[in-house]
């Protein structure tokens, strides 16, 4: 595989009308639309009881999600048609604006978990924008400084701060999974972009050591680790969700109880429409069904990596790689949490979990990857 940092970088092309007519990667588009359709179907089933309990309307969650999905699909196709040379100049503004929103939410949010901003009756999570902004800014910075990526300051310290600062803000918001995603994607982009692997390795080791110290000294973190080691511990408290999740997955068996026939979604399992939607999916369509879904995610990741590797534009390659890495990490983390393979942390499943901001940003990200795929058809 040709390294991104050693690949010749083609000059950015100006915004031209004919570029909009170039085909996109059809397999990638089909996979995205399939995952979106299956995700909406499962949210309709998994979320109706929780929707009724929380809002008095069984279809509140799915109705809003369909609206956000429609907006997101429109955004996906628009994003796929805009050449990188057009939007790349606005990336620093987008990045600074996203960081400003993260700071703002810490100041003005009234929620116990400071993750949401409100504009009238509309709420959104600034951290979702920050995830994309970090990927775009890192891709822009690495491309611009490709010749000095082995140096300590410009090749490691500055790009490290690009993702570490917003990740720290997200961590203060008590959004641990979001911080993990930003850190993980940031480190991978540094390595792929040609940063000194020794610097990255030392920083990663320090981070892991710091996480261990935090777990040993923060009570709720230590309790989650103990519950992970023994799911039957504290069944009325921290152990309730992982234990119920395992019961839900196990009750699906090989072929599942049938679509819409989950029993655990009737408020036995917390967050059936969000963090634990995969558990309900397992209960209803069984082992065979969820294997097919996992294959779809694997195909999405494979196709995204293929597009990233094949394009000759370093910025576009890094952008696509960062987006696909984020989706891959988030998917793996969600599946690990609901199967109790890792300690519990709130993290949604791409395309499936309820959340308008997350879904719209995800679909726009898919549009950016599809836009990168147009570069493959120019030759």
Structural description of this entry:
- The protein starts with 25 loop residues before the first helix and ends in a 5-residue tail after the last helix.
- Strands 1-2 form a two-stranded antiparallel sheet.
- It has helices spanning 26-46, 48-55, 60-81, 84-87, 91-108, 126-144, 153-172, 176-192, 197-217, 219-229, 240-251, 277-310, 314-338, 356-374, and strands at 117-119, 122-124.
- It has 379 residues and is mainly alpha-helical.
- The longest helix has 34 residues, at 277-310.
- It has one domain (23-377).
- It contains 14 helices and two strands.
| Overall mean pLDDT | 88
**How much helical structure, as a percent, in the residues?**
55-70%
Element order: H for helix, E for strand: HHHHHEEHHHHHHHHH
**Terminal CA distance:** 20 Å
Radius of gyration: 21 Å
**Could you list the spans in which at least 5 consecutive residues all have pLDDT below 50?**
1-20
Structural class, from helix and strand content? mainly alpha
Principal-axes geometry comes out as globular
Enumerate how many helices there are, as a single number: 14
How does the major sheet shape up? 2 strands, antiparallel
Portion in strands: under 5%
Strand segment count: 2
**Domain unit count:** 1
Q: In what order do the strands lie side by side in the largest sheet?
A: 1-2
């Amino acid at each position: 595989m040709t390294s991104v940092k050693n690949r010749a970088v083609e000059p950015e092309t100006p915004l031209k009308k004919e570029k909009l007519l170039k085909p996109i990667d059809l397999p990638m588009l089909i996979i995205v639309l399939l995952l979106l359709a299956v995700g909406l179907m499962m949210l309709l089933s998994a979320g109706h009881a929780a929707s009724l309990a929380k809002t008095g309307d069984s279809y509140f969650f799915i109705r809003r999600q369909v609206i956000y999905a429609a907006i997101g699909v429109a955004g996906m196709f628009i994003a796929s048609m805009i050449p990188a040379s057009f939007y790349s100049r606005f990336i620093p503004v987008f990045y600074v604006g996203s960081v400003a929103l993260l700071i703002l939410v810490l100041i003005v949010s009234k929620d116990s978990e400071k993750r949401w901003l409100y504009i009238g009756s509309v709420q959104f999570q600034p951290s979702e924008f920050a995830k994309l902004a970090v990927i775009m800014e890192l891709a822009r910075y690495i491309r611009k400084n490709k010749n000095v990526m082995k140096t300590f300051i410009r090749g490691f310290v500055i790009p490290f701060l690009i993702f570490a600062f917003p990740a720290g803000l997200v961590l203060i918001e008590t959004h641990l999974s979001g911080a993990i995603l930003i850190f993980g994607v940031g480190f991978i982009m540094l390595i792929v972009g040609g940063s000194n692997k020794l610097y990255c390795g030392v920083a990663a080791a320090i981070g892991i050591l710091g996480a261990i110290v935090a777990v040993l000294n923060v009570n709720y973190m230590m309790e989650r680790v103990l519950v992970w080691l023994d799911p039957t511990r504290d069944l009325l408290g921290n152990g309730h969700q992982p234990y119920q999740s395992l019961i839900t997955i196990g009750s699906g068996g090989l072929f599942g109880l049938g679509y819409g026939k989950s029993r655990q979604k009737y408020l036995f399992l917390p967050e059936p429409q969000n963090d634990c939607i995969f558990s309900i999916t397992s209960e209803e369509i069984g082992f065979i069904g969820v294997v097919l879904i996992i294959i779809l995610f694997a195909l999405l990741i494979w196709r995204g990596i293929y597009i990233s590797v094949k394009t000759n534009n370093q910025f576009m390659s890094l952008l696509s790689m960062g987006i696909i890495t984020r989706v891959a990490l988030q998917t793996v983390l969600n599946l690990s949490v609901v199967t109790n393979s890792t300690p519990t942390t709130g993290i949604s499943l791409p395309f499936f979990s309820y959340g308008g901001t997350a879904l719209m940003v995800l679909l726009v990200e898919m549009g950016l990857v599809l836009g990168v795929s147009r570069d493959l058809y120019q030759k």
